[in-house]
Amino acid sequence: MAAASSQPLKTLSLVLILTVLFGIGPAAADALPTVISLPLPAPFPPIRLLTLLVGLHLIGLCFGLGGATMLDFWILRWMRWGGLPPEIARTFLFVSKVVSVGIALLWLSGLGFLAVYAVEAPEKLSNPKILAKFVIVLVLTVNGLLIHALVLPSVLRDVSRPMFEGVSHLSTAVFLVSGAVSGVSWYAAFALGLMRELNGRVSAGLLLTLWLAAVAAAAVAAFAFWQSLLARSARGEMAKPSPDLRPLDFSDAPPPPPHPMRAVPMTFTQVPESRIVLLGRR
Asked: How many CB atoms lie within 10 A of CB 139?
């Protein structure tokens, strides 16, 4: 009874997706072919719309997962050594925008998948993995908005100092938890898209439970790592001192010495004339 009552809701949702993404109304949806393809000039065969959406999805994944991984490495380096070169701040913001573009591409292609499945293979919409991935990407999107609005403005105001110097405990906690959510969620979404063996075999509840457990473990590990760095810094046991990240000033530096090969001119004018004569006689 519950499944029958939920069917009209699913149908309405799919009609809305088709209308918004492709301008296809309810009447035209019934007239669509079983496989949606786009014609290409001869001699190329028609290309499936699903193929284009897969390509768009992979591009978004490259932007998002690659950019988020680079940001995580920079954050770990910043936490470990106490500062970053000043120009990294602009790069940090640029890569954050690339990650945002990746999330937007994931949403566009993901909704396109649902629309194509509704026409070509409606049975795929009952896959619980789709619901789990939808929830994870939704949390990833909200988490990114939270980081850009509340955390980055205070953390990135001076990257040459220790990471959380002058930052409130609340902002520090939000940043560490958000970093854990970002790192785990990107790789969880990647794994769910990759592992077709999970299709229809594992419930969405179990997948989301495993994801939440991984997020909690990553957050605890981030807090433990930060506390250990604070303790080692207080005891003066850091492996290396924080580097001097001030720009180098060469205005007062002495001129470099001449190259050793250029110190003695290699010309025949330096050879005595008598020696030149002897060489000529030989």
From this structure: 19
